[in-house]
Design brief:
Elements lengths: L2 H25 L4 H16 L10 H21 L1
């Protein structure tokens, strides 16, 4: 890998690791379900200009997102 690629990999790992620190601080102020909801709403707002909605499959996409995303992160933050 080139030096810029290594820098990007390090940056992604730092951001991912910092999310646990931010979650720990946020758990002192918010419930796990509220924090997970706020996190997903914020990410959805930032990604909205880049998203394409699949026609006829949105029910499946939303159910997977709720099960994998919201349930997983809520239980993770509860622990």
């Amino acid at each position: 890998m080139t030096l810029p690629h290594l820098g990007l990999a390090l940056l992604v790992n730092l951001i991912w690791g910092f999310s646990f620190v931010a979650a720990k601080v946020a758990m002192e102020h918010y419930s796990p379900l509220l924090f997970t909801s706020l996190r997903f709403v914020l990410v959805a707002l930032f990604l909205m200009p880049y998203l394409r909605f699949p026609k006829g499959r949105m029910r499946h996409v939303m159910s997977i997102a709720l099960l994998v995303g919201v349930a997983h992160f809520t239980f993770l933050y509860m622990a």
